[in-house]
Amino acid sequence: MKTNPPTESATFPTERRRFLRNTLATLLGASALSQIPNHSFADDPKSSTPAEPLLSVHDHNMHWPPGWTGNEQIVMLLYPGFTALDLFGPHHMFVLMMGAKVHLAAKTLDPVVTDTGIEVRPTISFQDAPERPTILFVPGGTGGTLDAAKDEVTRNFVAEKGKHAEFVTSVCTGSVLLGAAGLLEGYKATSHWITRDLLSEFGATPVDQRVVVDRNRITGAGVTSGLDFGLQMVKDLRNEEYAEAVQLFAEYDPQPPMDKGCEAKADPQISGLLMHMHEPFRQMVKQLAE
Q1: Are strands 101-106 and 124-125 parallel, antiparallel or unpaired?
Q2: What is the CATH number for 87?
Q3: Is residue 69 within 8 Å of 27, Cβ to Cβ?
Q4: Under a CB-based contact definition with an 8 Å cutoff, are residues 134 and 165 in contact?
């Protein structure tokens, strides 16, 4: 399965377009609905012309409230074997921020294969990435993350961009890669529950929390926490009303069939089995810190 080259925004069916327009109108006032131009959305999903941003800062007839627009440069790292959902959750939230430019950065512009076999096409190479990004984001994984941390080019890219980024962020074991790049020493951070305690090997203070904020280090726990992380970033970079609109548009209202999604709630036999299965991975993470 291949993804199309990501753009700053996606092409949405008419029904979703109307839904978002109505959401914004509710937040901004009834008169706003008539002010949101139709040309902000692309109706033809097969069109080769890049879609206008889903929420466009260039809608000249629209007077957006203070705090609703920005000009962030967001660099999201790609490397072979990263966990797809670690990236796609935050990416969905980021591209809905008006004015933000989201870059998918990799060593080359060749497609990058995720842990589930999905191919993602980078939008920018390491050498062309913004020098001082607003956000550096690193997804996690297992073997792919270890390989990325051992790869000098990738590790140096993370270290260099992390020095100059306004926010240094990760989801899941992406924090292990941040740690290997020397970016977590002296900071509180979280990771997937299987590796969270190992962050201390990199000089960090592990915190059992869904999203951990310590100054400009913002880390999310395992996989699906990327949705919470991304929504938190939208709230902080825009405002709560904007984040509410994004959450509603995504219909992010989790109601899982089982409430066993963290170690504290899980059956000890199941969590113990998973921990045992990943012990070799844990040992390799420890070796990274040596």
Answers
A1: parallel
A2: 3.40.50.880
A3: no
A4: yes
- For 167, the 3-state DSSP assignment is strand
Round to whole Å and give the CA distance between 208 and 269: 20
Residue 283 pLDDT > 80, yes or no? yes
Q: Which of 96, 120, 138, 172 is labelled catalytic?
A: 172
In a domain, 82, yes or no: yes
pTM: 0.82
Q: State how many domains the chain has.
A: 1
262 has catalytic annotation? no
Domain enclosing residue 76, as ranges: 70-289
Q: Would 259 be classed as within a structural domain?
A: yes
- Which amino acid, 180? A
Query: In this structure, are residues 142 and 192 in contact, taking their beta carbons and an 8 Å threshold?
Result: no
101-106 vs 73-77, strand pairing mode: parallel
Q: What is the DSSP string of 39-73?
A: GGS---TT-SSPPPPSS-TT-TT--PPTTS----E
Residue bearing the bigger pLDDT, 166 or 30: 166
What does the pLDDT look like over 98-111, one tens digit per residue?
Answer: 999 999 999 999 99
Distance linking the first and last C-alpha atoms of the chain: 38
DSSP category for residue 106: E
Which of 35, 8, 33, 32 is closest to 18 using CA atoms? 33
Residue 83 lies in a domain: yes
